[in-house]
Amino acid sequence: MLTGLVITSMLVQRCELPPRWFKGDTKHEKQKRFQNSNQYHSPTLRFTQCQPKPNVPHIQQGLDINLNETQQLHGHFIKTSSNCSYQVPLAALESYSSNAAIHSFLITSYIKNNFPADAAKIYAYMHRIDTEVDNFIIPPVLKPCCLIPSILLGQEVHGFVVKNGFHGDVFVCNALIMMYSEVGSLASAQLVFDKIHKKYVVSWSTMIRSYDKSGLLDEALDLVRDMHVMRVKPSEIAMISITHVLAELADLKLGKAMHAYVMRNWKCGKSGVPLSTALIDMYAKCKNLAYARRVFDGMSEASIISWTAMIATYIHCNNLNEGAGLFVKMLGEGMSPNEITMLSFVKECGTAGALELGKLLHAFTLRSGFTMSLVLATAFIDMYGKCGGVRSARSVFDSFKSKDLMMWSAMISAYAQNNCIDEAFDIFVHMTGCGIRPNERTMVSHLMICAKAGSLEMGKWIHSYIDKQGIKGNIILKTSLVDTYAKCGDIDALLAAAMDRDVSM
Fold first, then answer.
1. DSSP helix/strand/coil, 39
2. Which stretches are PPR repeats (predicted)?
3. Cis before residue 149, ω within 30 degrees of 0?
4. Three-state SS for 476?
């Protein structure tokens, strides 16, 4: 309980890590110094005007000595020191417990609260005070490497793993594979995988998912075949990863074979909701509506994710009436769509050019009291732009007083796609006038729209803006400018962009 309170205070304050005091002292020396220092920090001081600044050594001298006195001192620091030194909570934590489990819990807590750098500092601090680090703490320690991300920190932890003989632990190896894949070093991930003597299904699944996330689908499929040859029976999680690989490859033949395998090996031929949803998505990307609907109808209890996948499948395959009908049926069965569901529908409407269905979704959002976030509003603007409904896009845009860069960019793109160049100019100028500066990704996106729509005038205007901002040497922007001018048929402007010269409007 006491440890939990200290950890909570550390998470709130996001404390830095102190060095170790009196590390070489004997227990007797600590006891003597603790008693001498504690008399100056007696709780009776709270009745006086004298409030000494909390001192970390005063707490740390109480390590393994006297819990009652340590609690009194900790309580005194809390009551009398609102601006307590950042080092006090960690020192108090060590007073109650100095083992690795507490540090492991603290690392996990920092990660869950999205403070990966602080979690990494805890790991470094453990080494500094010679706290024993076992194999159980390695997987949590590797997570900050993915979130920061830092391959150097990951390699340092990997070296520690090998040095201490933890490389035979399957959970440690799986964490290393995931870490290397997240920081973009799949070759290192494969080396770790290859050195695992006895590969369990979790290891196979982790490696397949790593290749899948990196877009290396053929390599992922090779691993699936190797897994089959080694007679490793995949778990449901592994099957979801494999299904996603086949969906991205749009391999209907292999997809059907895998579906048959699921029917044979899962109880009553019915897979769980996540796997069934993955199968629906796979058949959708193979443009096989009949099999997707068969999987959906065979589900004993469909979740909102399953409904979303099936409706999105109909829209993706341009079967808009069935999609609208299933959406109404979903509402009739008491399933309320969430923001992710609506984003999926709106995105598919934009891709399919389904303006009427998009308007239906917009009307539902307004009438049902559904919270219209910036993200969802931007999706509607993008959808209307792709479907030719520029006025509706502008209506959504104007309904928000506070706009982020993505919303401004979506409105500019909507005008550019519909060849409303003057309006796009006005929005761009207004955006920069509001102090919102487009980033590289935004400008590349606008140039791609200009190239697709043949909007030479707007392409030149963006080129002029890039020159004024002094970022003409950016190779990505230069390539986008050259591509835009090439597709618009302006050779002079193309050469000017290639040679970093100003272009005449």
1. helix
2. 200-234, 303-337, 404-438
3. yes
4. helix
Distance in Å from the first CA to the final CA of the chain: 70
| Structure tokens given for 226 | 């190797």
Query: How many Cβ atoms sit within 10 Å of the Cβ of residue 232?
Result: 16
Least confident range from 5-9, 316-320, 418-422: namely 5-9
Measured in residues, the chain has a length of 505
Q: Which residues contact 227 (CB under 8 A, 6 or more apart)?
A: 204, 208, 234, 238
Name, in order, each residue with C-beta under 8 angstroms of 167's C-beta and a sequence gap of 6 or more.
Answer: 161, 173, 195
Instruction: Characterise 25 by phi-psi region: left (phi > 0), alpha (psi -120 to 50), beta (else).
Output: beta
Distance from C-alpha of 263 to C-alpha of 243, rounded to nearest angstrom: 14
Digit-coded pLDDT (tens) for 140-173:
888 888 888 788 888 888 988 888 888 888 888 9
What the block records as the tokens of 309 is 């996948």
Instruction: Describe the crossing of helices 355-367 and 320-332 by its angle, rounded to 10 degrees.
Output: 20
What CA–CA distances, in Å, run from 286 to 421, 438, 480? 38, 37, 32
Please give the Cα distance from 95 to 65 (Å, whole number).
Answer: 9
